[in-house]
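Good day; I would like, with your permission, to put a structural problem before you. The record follows directly beneath this note:
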Amino acid sequence: MRQVINFNTKWAFTKNTDEVPQSMPQRWEWVTLPHTWNNIDGQDGGNDYYRGTCYYAKELDKSELPVADKYYMEINGANSSANVYVNGNKLSHHDGGYSTFRIDMTDHLKDKNLVVVEVDNAENNYVYPQMADFTFYGGLYRDVNIIAVNESHFDLEYYGGPGIKVTPCIEGRDANVEVVVYLKDAKSSQRLVYSIKDADGKEVASTECAVKSGEQGVAQLKISNVNLWQGRKNPYLYTAEVCLMEQDNVLDNVCTRFGCRTFEIDARKGFILNGESYPLRGVSRHQDRWGYGNALLPEHHTQDMDLICEMGANTIRLAHYQHDRYFYDLCDERGMVVWAEIPYISKHMPEGKDNTVSQMKELITQNYNHPSIVVWGLSNEITMSNENSEDLMENHKLLNDMVHEMDPTRKTVIACVSMCDMHDPYVQIPDVVSYNHYFGWYGGDTSMNGPWFDKFHEEFPNIPIGVSEYGCEALNWHSSEPHQGDYTEEYQAYYHEELIKQLFTRPYIWATHVWNMFDFGADARNEGGENGQNHKGLVTFDRKYKKDAFYAYKAWLTDTPFVHICGKRYIDRVEDVTRIRVYSNQPEVELYVNGASIGKQTSQSHFFTFDVPNQGRSKIVAIANACEDDSVINKVDKFNEDYRLKEKGAILNWFDITAPEGCFSLNDKISDIMANAEGKQLFGGVMSQITKGLGSSGMAGFEMSEGMMQMMGGFTVLRLTGLMGMTGVHFTKEQLLELNEQLNKIKK
């Protein structure tokens, strides 16, 4: 019977060699897995984190392993390519940094052994991802195990999967369950024993059969009066186990949990679970966190899930790659409906087609049994550069057909970049479509979101449409007059209030996924005053602070009574009467200032607004039924500059720019400048420079489309030039000051 031995401790690590060691290194750094070499430099900005080849080495004494016929090494995450050596012999190469792979070490093991794993996250043109708004942390950042098995065993090399595939089919009150297992070197004298147990461990179905020729075993079992997996309402799980037997001896066994459910994605009614409407409202999740990168422990995954559940979400888009098996298990247990995807993102690479296929095969094979997963994501924003080549189309058709063949029980989906024309043929390839829209943050305004989806729904009434990303950035900056691009917590809260009201009231939208649940590492970013991160999270990178927008969702999506006063970090205020926002899932809120009630309010939107006298230091208390929350404000004569954004490392801040009254400056919106004849002529040259720069930065074929221009119209010139730094297009201080001087000469 198989045994799994954890292999995480006492690895030697270095990035300072270019050859595989022949003996155990004595002067390398000692590390314990999970480990990444980018947990610091991948989060501090500058887009200069180390991307290259590093080495891990560990001694293995065979006498410390259980006696077995076969020994496999299991690597659950090595980003992004890896070579595995045992005693100097290269046994395996793997491309793809987010999936499990295993290596048969048996024939190369001696009494004393040296195991070396060469891991490489350097740039190339054939392993995804290579261009995206997140850090590609290198390392052995998930568990490594050794699996000891009998010569006859369930296959450990079949795309890194569990060796068992369970497909339930609901028929009335019962479920017919097909269980397929994959075998290696099984013999006709052996037999397979199948068993299904309920959540209490009681056996509800069983069967057995002789091993037949071939590498698969298939059985049909029936669960009477089946308990359905009902999402967060009741995430009921069964367990299927199969034993490979020789007479009365168990040679090997595999088991997996699974759930019995049906679902539909209807273009008019949205998501339907087990025959009932079940609107999907949730978040996207990146797996990294401050100081750890991707090298997470189980408690980190559990904390993330606890926070997502507290917010009230019932769906998670696991972006933009395969996540840890432990987190998929949590999704099953907590009833999350999941979008799982591969990192085919941002830039189509003609040499990467095979890698999209292998990563998709691994994603599906390794995660097929999770009832939480309902869609397989083919790609994300792959037409970002406005490239829609025949090769890109063929890659998507290939993946779409392959996914349907591997898993006819689920749907395919793509996440389209906002500028992608809804009439583009590529949008028609998958079963389901979602869009990444940032109207109100990256240009445009918040009111554009709902009408855009209405237009799509009107033109394509038979294509289910959803929202795969929407959000805006917020740090510890504050304002009583928030506006787009100021990175204040107040603007983020306003933005999400507006998007909640627009998106949650359109029942045809099959799913909404906030971008993002947590701030995450993006070392190329240089904005918001804290470089190296994307700050669109509802919770900070370290998981220590829930931004006000978190509570806006909690007010809409949860039933357990609560009340929350917004702006707790915004204490010093200059105005004589200040506005206090309160969120609650209760119908009425009463607000007290220094013990005196200033009134009650009711709200069907769950958002409450009070105008509060601001004199001296005031304690604010909000009461909603039995719930209570408090905060403090303080009257000041001058605005506290600690609340105002100052870009870290910026060559210019907004307050450094001359802006004569009645004339343009870098602080004006592009749409206003382009509406002026002189401004359009001047700024046209700037746009040409940006387009040319994007082409030279690797976004070949980039064109400034009408949709792109519409989005960019909401940016100030300064903000746009700053954002371009993430794509490799840089403006010097002198260039910006010269442009500002020319703008100053143009009257509004």
